[in-house]
Amino acid sequence: MVVSPAATTPIELLAAQVDCEVITLPTGAHVFEAGQPANAIYGVRRGIVEVIGEQGERLCYRAGELFSYEEIVWRDGVYRNQAIARTPVEILRLERLRFLNLLHNHPTLAILLIGQQHERLREQRTSGTCCY
Question: Are 16 and 122 in contact (CB under 8 A)?
Fold first, then answer.
């Protein structure tokens, strides 16, 4: 079955990449730490990942959401925050250059990511919570 580009989600696009790595982590495990080289983008397939910023701000990512793309696209090559599994998680990992190639081949992915981020932030503001 061929999925039309309009029906494909960001997590499906990430998972479809040949070099995409699937990682399973337990609750409390660190996905990455501040200061490490920002060399990959991540997508949550199952569970919740919390990203804690430099000033202590917290953002949670759930199944279907991608995170860390800001660091690999716009930053100076290091993660400015840390990512921690808040539940047992299954995440997808795609190297930076592979992700940039994916964006080049599927430019609407950028629009989908902006839309997902907008919805997630709106939900968090409405509920007044981050992860729980």
Answer: no
Q: 126 lies in a domain? A: no
- Residue 112 has what pLDDT? 84
Mean pLDDT of 115-127: 74
Q: Can you give the pLDDT at residue 94?
A: 96
Residue 51: Cβ within 10 Å count: 22
- Predicted pLDDT at 40: 94
Burial class (CB in 10 A: 0-12, 13-18, 19+), 88: middle
Model-wide pTM > 0.85 = no
CB of 84 within 8 A of CB of 49?
A: yes
Q: 111-114 contacts: CB < 8 A, separation 24 or more? A: 112/9, 112/10, 113/10, 113/66, 113/69
What pLDDT is recorded for position 130?
55
55 found inside a domain:
yes
Q: How many domains does the chain have?
A: 1
Tokens encoding 22: 């699937």
Q: What is the C-alpha separation between 28 and 91, in angstroms, rounded? A: 14
